[in-house]
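Consider the following input, taken from an annotated entry for Sulfotransferase (Adonisia turfae CCMR0082).
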Amino acid sequence: MKDSKPMQTLNPIFLVGCPRSGTTLLQQMLDAHPDVAIAPETHFIRNFWLKREHYGDLAEDANYQVLLHAIADIPEFAEMELDLSAFQDAAQTLDRSYAALFTLLLEQFRQGRNTQIVGEKTPNHLLYMQTLQTFFPKARFIHIIRDPRAVINSWKTVPWSTGSVGGDAEVWRRYMATARQSPPDNGAIFTLHYEQLISASEDCLKKLCNFLELSFDASMLDYHTQQSKRVNVNREPWKGNAVRPVNNKSLNRWQTELSNLEIATIEAVASSEMCQLGYKTQSASWPLLKANAQKHTQQKLKLAKRYINKLVKL
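Applying the prediction step yields:
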């Protein structure tokens, strides 16, 4: 096995971005490289680090065992094809910290895949890049960005949507603002756009490989021919397109599937971040939104009058 990288110098790569921005596609492309292994979404920060008060003092054996079992219980543990006994045995030799356990998780995944480079793909780790950099001072981040109108259009089929286009647009805006305001130190981040990855895949991947100090491999373009165990489309059906060949139809689908009002709403909420990222707005947002607000106000007034009339008649 290629075990030349001891755990204490592990420098993983993290694929991050607002959900439905192409992180899964990028994961598939990188994971197809013979020297790279990209773990699926562990949500380690959200599932464990942010719940550290719940798990308590890890110096207490009972607390530590509860945490180990919780880590092993996530679906991704099985999808990473990790050995439970080996993980638990190795965990007993570690400094009892969240950073050490995340390191162990990734290191055993790397060893199982026999690669030089290991990474992990949890989109919302974009919000915790500085925390991850305290865990892994030499970590590198790959941030993929996608047109918010396309992102929010795709959220119509996922369980985490806020239920409103305006709410979803605000989520996207906050992701982008956080990435801009709290980047990792030392320029340890590579930013690419989903649109570039789709329209000029090879050129985009070559630039990414250069950032990672890695030779480009043509297998990255043939990712869809490999049966990935890191994407479970039965559990997460919205990821189905990410295991198929690149399709540029996904770039502009939002133009026909979103209404003018939906487009206007997204642009009104996210226009500042959109402009900074090179996405042009196309609608006269405020007149549409104002007209819609007036329409809803009139409807509410009618309903209120009907309700009052009913009360008067009683």
